[in-house]
Amino acid sequence: MAQHFRVGRLSQEIQREVNDILLKRVRDPRVKDVTITGVEVSGDLQHATIYYSILSDKASDEKKVQTGLDKATSLIRGELGHRLSIYVTPEIKFERDKSVQYGDHIDELLRKLHSTDKF
How does it assemble (predicted)? Predict the structure, then answer.
């Protein structure tokens, strides 16, 4: 039970710090409009997957943002090491959060369903 609490607390802390680091320390224009939506930390606290979203739906923008985040990973991990009071800073990996796109898709399907129900 205590382990799950620690993992959850660390996830929240990483999310808050990565948002701050992206805003204040990363100068890459490719990651300018990135929003961190969640963090998943492994049970042994060695790996963290950071989920992000962007406003654009273009595949080219998605590739640019992913490249920018991959380039900034070492800077972000180093900053996390200084800011967090944990023994080992987890390895971080960035993944695009697909839930926003999925929610838009569901909304579109519901709108189509409602428009065909009317006589």
Answer: Monomer. Binds 30S ribosomal subunits, but not 50S ribosomal subunits or 70S ribosomes.
